[in-house]
Amino acid sequence: MASTRRQFLNRVLAAGVAAISAYIIYPVLRFLTPPQFALGEQETVVAATTDELKPNSAKFFKFQDKPAVLVRLPDGSYKALSAKCTHLGCTVSFESRKDDFLCECHGSEFDLNGKVLRGPAARPLPVYLVSIRGDKIYVSAGKQAA
Ligand code: FES
Predict the structure, then answer these.
(1) Which has fewest Cβ within 10 Å: 31, 58, 130, 140?
(2) Nearest C-alpha neighbor of 66 from the set 105, 104, 39
(3) For a substitution probing ligand 1, which of 88, 91, 125 has the most ligand atoms within 8 Å of its CB?
(4) 100 Cα: distance to centroid of ligand 1 (angstroms)
(5) Are the C-beta atoms of residues 121 and 23 closer than 8 Å to each other?
(6) With a 6 A CB cut-off, is 125 part of the ligand 1 pocket?
(7) pTM for the whole thing?
(8) Rounded distance, CA 95 to CA 102, Å?
(9) Protein residue closest via CA to atom 3 of ligand 1
(10) Which tens digits make up the pLDDT trace of 44-90?
């Protein structure tokens, strides 16, 4: 009888030690194992098809859960930028007459390379990579080659 009680207590103690060990070791292993990719950094989206945009026009789309804009330049090439104003986060609009982006919240203006033309925004709009495969225009994170 005493042996049975001792065995029972040993099993309860062993189960408790195993549970506490798992509780401590699992987060440590999760911390030490790097994620397969950083969320959003490798995302590529189809922003448009090649027949969608006329020269000197723009299309807004979602990229990494934020507004982005694809612009077809007069020479037929494309630019993709974040459309989220770097001042307080309003969505900019494309001004085809002036070839720039205007934030109507507080009046910031950006050129087609994302450079600030007029504040209060102090940082440029992030520029994304554009690649064309077949009839699809892909946009991915990273800087556009100059
Ligand atoms: Fe764009 Fe303030 S949010 S200028």
Answers:
(1) 31
(2) 39
(3) 88
(4) 15
(5) no
(6) no
(7) 0.66
(8) 7
(9) 88
(10) 888 888 898 888 899 999 998 899 999 998 888 999 999 999 999 99
72-102 CB burial, b ≥16 within 10 A, e <16: beeeeebbbbbbbbbbeebbbebeeeeebbb
Report the alpha-carbon distance of residue 48 to residue 39 in Å, rounded.
23
Q: Which residue has the tokens 């087609």?
A: 112
Size of the chain in residues: 146
The verdict on whether omega for the bond into residue 74 sits within 30 degrees of 0, i.e. cis, is no
Give burial (CB, 10 Å; 0-12/13-18/19+) of 59: middle
Does pLDDT of 145 surpass 50?
A: no
Task: Give φ, ψ of 90 to 5 degrees.
Answer: -70, 160
* Atom from ligand 1 closest to the CA of residue 88: 3
